[in-house]
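Lab notebook, design round three. We kept the backbone fixed and only want residue identities now. Task for the bench partner: fill in a sequence for the structure below.
Input structure tokens:
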């Protein structure tokens, strides 16, 4: 995830759905699909506003890491 996110919320470690989609270089629609399938990072919903904590997003990304697969010869 890009660490140069600049917004009023980023000072407290909270980012918007749009900021997260941009940081992950995915479309907003893809992020919404992740949310609907419950495979995306944990979110905070306040009314209609969807927010994410940067720390939980980083933990979610770390959980997606897989070791490199060696090629057979």
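Proposed sequence:
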């Amino acid at each position: 995830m890009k660490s140069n996110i600049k917004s009023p919320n980023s000072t407290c470690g909270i980012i918007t759905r749009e900021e997260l989609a941009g940081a992950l270089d995915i479309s907003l629609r893809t992020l919404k699909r992740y949310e609907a399938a419950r495979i995306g990072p944990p979110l905070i919903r306040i009314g209609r506003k969807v927010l994410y904590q940067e720390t939980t997003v980083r933990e979610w990304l770390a959980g997606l890491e897989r070791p490199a697969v060696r090629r057979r010869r």
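Keep this in mind before ordering anything: The beta strands are 14-16, 44-46, 49-53.
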